[in-house]
Design a protein that fits this description.
about 350 residues; Glutamine Phosphoribosylpyrophosphate, subunit 1, domain 1; about 20% strand; binds aspartic acid; protease; autocatalytic cleavage; Peptidase_T2
Length: about 350
C-alpha cells in the first residue's frame, strides 16, 4: 500500500532523530574557557565573547585583556612586578590552534595592553615575537595607546622598600656587589665561600621565591569556540625585581601556552626561568597527541621539570579538543577556572601538589 506524505516525513524524521540529538549533544560541549588561577572576571569576559560567537583567538584576547585591566593579583597588566630599576614590563602571547600562528611581545615597555599587542604582532606582521622598545613602538604605531608609564603607587612602594632592603632578594647569583645594589662583579667560588660572602657582603646568591599563594603571576587561557577551534593566550608582568631585559616564559610558545586544533591546548604558570627550559605546554599537547589524557599529560610535563629542579614552583592546565581538562602542579597548590555549557558560571578547580 502506498504511504501518505505525512507518514513518510514522520518516519524520515524518526530515522534522523538520534543523529540530530547526537549533533546537538556534540554542539553542547562548546564553547569552553579554561584559565590559570581564579581569574573569574577574565573567564567571564572570554565566555561572554565566545558565547556571543567570537572566534577562540578573539575570546582569548578579551579574557586576558580583562585581566590586564583589572590588574589580576597585581601580576598581570600594568602597575605590578617592578624590575630592578622600578619599571613594569609586560610579556604576552597569543596562539591560534588552527593556523599555528603566534604573536608575542616580550619585556614591552610603555604600553599597557600586552595581549592586544601580541595579537597585532600575529595579525599584522610576519614575525612571531617582538621585544623591548621595538615591541612598544610597533604596538603604538598600530594604534594602541602609549607611550605611558606602567608604574603604579603599589609598584613604586614595593620597589622603594626593596631598595631600602639593600636590593635583597634579587635574581643575581655568583656575584659581588661593589655597593649594596651593584654594580656587580662575577665571582667563581665554591658555594661555602659564597654563602659567607652572602652574609657579610650582601652578595646575591639567594634565589627569590618568585611566586607565592597570594601572588599568582600569569593568566594563561585556552578557549575552544563554538566551531571547536582552539586558541591560547598568556599575559603577565613577570617576576618582581627581575633584571631589566629579563624575558620570562610568558611570550614563549610551547612554554607558557600552546594549542593545536587537532589535539587541544595548554597553559602554564610558575617559575618561568626554569619552566621555559622544558617547553611544558608543548610537551602536554604532544603527549595528548600520543594518546595521553589531559591529567596524565599535565602530570608528566610537570614531573619532567621536577626531576631536574625539585625546588621549582609551577603548574600547567591541559584541555583536549573535546573540552576535557586537568591541572598538575609542583611546589604549590594550584587553582584553575573553567566555564563550559554545563555550568551556570565559572567554576574553580583546586589541584594539590
Ligand atoms: N611564568 C611567569 C614568569 O616567570 C610567572 C608566573 O606565572 O608565576 O614570568
Amino acid at each position: 500500500m502506498a504511504r501518505s506524505y505525512p507518514s513518510i516525513i514522520l518516519s524520515t524524521l524518526l530515522l534522523f532523530l538520534p543523529l540530530l540529538t547526537g549533533v546537538e549533544a556534540e554542539a553542547k560541549k562548546f564553547p569552553v574557557v579554561v584559565s590559570t588561577w581564579p581569574f573569574i572576571e577574565a573567564v567571564r569576559a572570554a565566555w561572554r565573547a565566545v558565547d556571543n560567537g567570537s572566534s577562540a583567538v578573539d575570546a582569548v584576547v578579551e579574557g586576558c585583556s580583562a585581566c590586564e585591566q583589572l590588574r589580576c593579583d597585581g601580576t598581570v597588566g600594568p602597575g605590578g612586578s617592578p624590575n630592578e630599576k622600578g619599571e613594569t614590563m609586560l610579556d604576552a602571547l597569543v596562539m591560534d590552534g588552527v593556523t599555528m600562528e603566534v604573536g608575542a611581545v616580550a619585556a614591552m615597555r610603555y604600553v599597557k595592553d600586552g595581549i592586544r599587542a601580541a595579537r597585532l604582532v600575529m595579525k599584522h606582521s610576519q614575525h612571531t615575537l617582538l621585544a623591548g622598545e621595538g615591541a612598544s613602538a610597533f604596538a603604538i604605531s598600530m594604534g594602541l595607546p602609549g607611550p605611558m608609564n606602567l608604574s603604579s603607587p603599589e609598584s613604586v612602594n614595593k620597589w622603594s622598600d626593596w631598595k631600602e632592603n639593600r636590593c635583597q632578594p634579587n635574581f643575581r647569583k655568583n656575584v659581588v656587589p661593589a655597593n649594596d645594589c651593584g654594580p656587580y662583579k662575577p665571582i667563581d667560588v665554591s658555594r661555602e665561600v659564597l654563602t659567607e660572602y652572602s652574609c657579610e657582603m650582601g652578595t646575591a646568591e639567594y634565589r627569590l621565591p618568585l611566586v607565592g599563594p597570594h601572588s599568582h603571576d600569569t593568566i594563561s587561557m585556552a578557549v575552544i569556540d563554538k566551531m571547536g577551534h582552539i586558541a591560547v593566550g598568556t599575559s603577565t608582568n613577570g617576576a618582581t625585581f627581575k633584571i631589566p631585559g629579563r624575558v620570562g616564559d610568558g611570550p614563549i610558545a610551547g612554554s607558557s601556552a600552546y594549542a593545536d586544533d587537532e589535539v587541544g591546548g595548554c597553559g602554564a604558570t610558575g617559575d618561568g626561568d626554569i619552566m621555559m627550559r622544558f617547553l611544558p605546554c608543548y610537551q602536554v599537547v604532544e603527549s595528548m597527541r600520543q594518546g595521553m589524557k589531559p591529567e596524565k599529560a599535565a602530570k608528566d610535563a610537570v614531573s619532567r621539570i621536577a626531576r631536574k629542579f625539585p625546588d621549582f614552583v609551577g603548574a600547567v592546565v591541559a584541555v583536549d579538543k573535546n573540552g576535557s581538562h586537568a591541572g598538575a602542579c609542583h611546589g604549590w597548590t594550584f587553582q584553575y577556572s573553567v566555564q563550559s555549557p554545563d555550568m551556570d558560571d565559572v567554576q574553580v578547580f583546586t589541584v594539590l601538589p
